[in-house]
Design brief:
Length: 107
Protein backbone atom coordinates (compact mmCIF):
# COMPACT_ATOMS: atom_id res chain seq x y z
CA UNK A 1 0.00 0.00 0.00
CA UNK A 2 2.57 2.66 1.07
CA UNK A 3 5.10 1.60 -1.54
CA UNK A 4 3.01 2.67 -4.51
CA UNK A 5 2.67 6.20 -3.15
CA UNK A 6 6.46 6.49 -2.80
CA UNK A 7 7.31 5.48 -6.34
CA UNK A 8 8.37 2.43 -8.28
CA UNK A 9 11.85 2.26 -6.68
CA UNK A 10 10.52 1.97 -3.13
CA UNK A 11 11.07 -1.30 -1.29
CA UNK A 12 10.09 -2.52 2.15
CA UNK A 13 13.05 -3.57 4.33
CA UNK A 14 13.10 -6.54 6.65
CA UNK A 15 12.35 -4.12 9.50
CA UNK A 16 9.22 -2.75 7.85
CA UNK A 17 10.78 0.53 6.79
CA UNK A 18 10.46 1.87 3.28
CA UNK A 19 13.57 2.74 1.28
CA UNK A 20 13.76 4.31 -2.12
CA UNK A 21 16.40 4.57 -4.81
CA UNK A 22 18.79 2.40 -6.72
CA UNK A 23 20.59 0.97 -3.69
CA UNK A 24 17.31 0.12 -1.98
CA UNK A 25 16.26 -1.90 -5.00
CA UNK A 26 19.63 -3.67 -5.13
CA UNK A 27 19.63 -4.36 -1.39
CA UNK A 28 16.12 -5.77 -1.63
CA UNK A 29 17.01 -8.03 -4.52
CA UNK A 30 20.16 -9.23 -2.75
CA UNK A 31 18.03 -10.11 0.29
CA UNK A 32 15.78 -12.26 -1.84
CA UNK A 33 18.53 -13.79 -4.00
CA UNK A 34 22.31 -13.51 -4.00
CA UNK A 35 23.33 -11.19 -6.80
CA UNK A 36 26.67 -9.76 -7.85
CA UNK A 37 25.05 -6.76 -9.52
CA UNK A 38 24.98 -4.58 -6.37
CA UNK A 39 27.64 -1.95 -5.98
CA UNK A 40 30.18 -1.97 -3.18
CA UNK A 41 28.80 1.32 -1.86
CA UNK A 42 25.33 -0.15 -1.44
CA UNK A 43 26.65 -3.16 0.46
CA UNK A 44 29.16 -1.19 2.53
CA UNK A 45 26.56 1.13 4.05
CA UNK A 46 24.63 -1.79 5.49
CA UNK A 47 27.78 -3.55 6.71
CA UNK A 48 29.03 -0.36 8.33
CA UNK A 49 25.80 0.29 10.18
CA UNK A 50 25.55 -3.31 11.41
CA UNK A 51 29.17 -3.29 12.59
CA UNK A 52 28.67 0.06 14.35
CA UNK A 53 25.58 -1.22 16.16
CA UNK A 54 27.36 -4.45 17.18
CA UNK A 55 30.16 -2.28 18.60
CA UNK A 56 27.48 -0.34 20.52
CA UNK A 57 28.59 2.94 18.95
CA UNK A 58 26.54 5.92 17.89
CA UNK A 59 27.19 7.60 14.56
CA UNK A 60 28.83 10.40 16.56
CA UNK A 61 31.15 7.91 18.32
CA UNK A 62 32.17 6.35 15.02
CA UNK A 63 32.66 9.71 13.35
CA UNK A 64 34.89 10.92 16.16
CA UNK A 65 36.96 7.74 16.19
CA UNK A 66 37.41 7.82 12.38
CA UNK A 67 38.00 11.61 12.25
CA UNK A 68 34.87 12.24 10.15
CA UNK A 69 31.60 14.09 10.65
CA UNK A 70 28.46 12.39 11.91
CA UNK A 71 26.68 13.64 8.82
CA UNK A 72 29.16 11.88 6.54
CA UNK A 73 28.81 8.61 8.49
CA UNK A 74 25.05 8.91 8.08
CA UNK A 75 25.40 9.43 4.31
CA UNK A 76 27.63 6.37 4.06
CA UNK A 77 25.22 4.19 6.05
CA UNK A 78 22.31 5.31 3.86
CA UNK A 79 24.31 4.52 0.71
CA UNK A 80 24.33 8.15 -0.38
CA UNK A 81 28.15 8.25 -0.54
CA UNK A 82 30.94 5.77 -1.23
CA UNK A 83 34.09 6.15 0.88
CA UNK A 84 37.62 6.49 -0.41
CA UNK A 85 39.99 3.62 0.41
CA UNK A 86 41.54 5.69 3.21
CA UNK A 87 38.16 6.46 4.79
CA UNK A 88 37.05 2.84 4.34
CA UNK A 89 40.10 1.63 6.29
CA UNK A 90 39.59 4.20 9.07
CA UNK A 91 35.92 3.26 9.43
CA UNK A 92 36.33 -0.49 9.55
CA UNK A 93 39.20 -0.24 12.02
CA UNK A 94 37.12 2.14 14.16
CA UNK A 95 34.41 -0.53 14.54
CA UNK A 96 36.99 -3.22 15.35
CA UNK A 97 37.17 -5.02 12.01
CA UNK A 98 39.97 -5.50 9.54
CA UNK A 99 39.61 -4.29 5.96
CA UNK A 100 40.08 -7.89 4.77
CA UNK A 101 37.12 -9.09 6.88
CA UNK A 102 34.83 -6.45 5.38
CA UNK A 103 36.00 -7.07 1.82
CA UNK A 104 35.33 -10.79 2.28
CA UNK A 105 31.76 -9.97 3.35
CA UNK A 106 31.24 -7.72 0.32
CA UNK A 107 32.49 -10.37 -2.09
Amino acid sequence: PGLRAQGKDAVRTAHGRTRTGECAARNYSSQTRRSSSGSVGCVFGTLLKNARLRAEMTQEDLAQKAALTREYVSLLERDKRTPTIEVFIRLVRAVGLSPAEVIAQID
